[in-house]
Amino acid sequence: MTPQEALRRVIASCELPQVVLGWRQDPAVARTRLANLDALLDMAAQYEDACRGTRQAATISGMLLWLDRQAEAGEDALAQPGVDAVRVLTHHAAKGLEWPVVILTDLDKEVRNRLWGISTVSNQGVDAAAPLNDRFIRYWPWPFGKQASGIAVKDTIDASAIAQRYQAAALAEAQRLLYVSMTRPREMLVLALKQKAKSQHWLDSLDAPWLLDGDPGAVQTQLPNGKAVSSETLMVEPPAELAPPQTDATALYWPRPEPTAEKLPLLFNPSSVGASKGEVLDKVSFGERLHVNPGADWGVLGSAVHACLAASFTEQGTWLSETVVSRVLDGFQVRAHIDADALSTQIQAIHAWLESRWPGSKARAEVPVKTRLPNGQVINGRIDLLLETEHGFVLIDHKSSPFGEDKWSELVDTYQGQLNAYANAIAEASGKNVIEQWLLFPVAGGAVRCSPSHAKVTLRAVP
């Protein structure tokens, strides 16, 4: 998926529209939040367009970095739904927008220059062909802590030519920002002034005293060019206490509670089933216990023995020779740890046991099984050995464990859940029951019969 498609999938899968509607019981705010989700999707589309223009790959990680840059640059403006609402934002964020009424506040704040701190300096302006030419970073640290007045050195610096240049640049920037803000209203501009303020620094930068000369009750303000505009000067006092806004007590929407039942994975491998209590019904021994030299990787060794067993069923009645077994063990790089002749003899003993216990059965090795269970899960695995008899299936799972007979009961508990999962899958896929379940231990030279599961169990993945 493209980044925009992935974002749309996240919004839908997480039910974000319903979630944000439950954050506040206010229709106007709710519509704003929904509009912001749409605006986020629009920004994802802008990112993809930018990648197309520069012939770069559009990725999710790239979109996240791009969104960070938009936020740092103040280009991530909130959506503007058609609702009655008050927006509080800076002069910079107001660029390109307009409203019926605009109220300017904090006009008495001092216009701060960048004399102190970090700034960039260009003595000759910016040259597009050489943008870094004659440009440098200037840093004047503030050494006076929290003290801001009564410092002779500071007063001297403030009166210097370089300080005057910085102050003039700051005033020019304030004028530009005021131009942006004062041209945003369509119908009315309100200048909110503090009566006790000693100076209105921002308005003073305009050198327009007529803005402050209005008398209470006047209905016009005279402009320097002789024209007049409608105006009104009001003296207002804040209320002693502001009452909270009245909102409807009924929630617009509340997200559905998460179900308390465990969420099961769609695809399920029986080998990931956890331990389940099992019962040992029978034990048999065949051949002799195989000797394994020290230092063997039991995972790799088990895979090698498993491969030899599986190959032995490729032709009915024909078992692997010592030469073929040696070649398989060489392929797994475990030949130094187990004797090929002994393993070949053990495989023959296993075949003899199978034939004597289930004569005439049809053996199938490495049987893939995939079926949908009643709870909606899809089981997907591979059965080591499946014997088909006239009464049903015999399920046999190979384990390379070297433990002796005294430990087999513990192994049954460990793998009973896996056998039950396979048995359920076989019954669902074929309509025939598994009449016997066995764990086969080719290294230990034995097998154990487990209690079959006739119940339809619910499968769960191990955390």
From TrEMBL:
A Pfam family of this chain: PDDEXK_1
Keywords: ATP-binding, DNA damage, DNA repair, DNA-binding, Exonuclease, Helicase, Hydrolase, Nuclease, Nucleotide-binding
GO molecular function annotations of the record: exonuclease activity
PD-(D/E)XK endonuclease-like domain mapped to chain residues: 300-444
Domain of life assignment: Bacteria
All residue ranges annotated as the UvrD-like helicase C-terminal domain in the record: 32-194
PANTHER family documented for this protein: ATP-DEPENDENT DNA HELICASE SRS2, UVRD / RECB / PCRA DNA HELICASE FAMILY MEMBER
Name the UniProt record assigns to this protein: DNA 3'-5' helicase II
Organism expressing this protein natively: Hydrogenophaga atypica
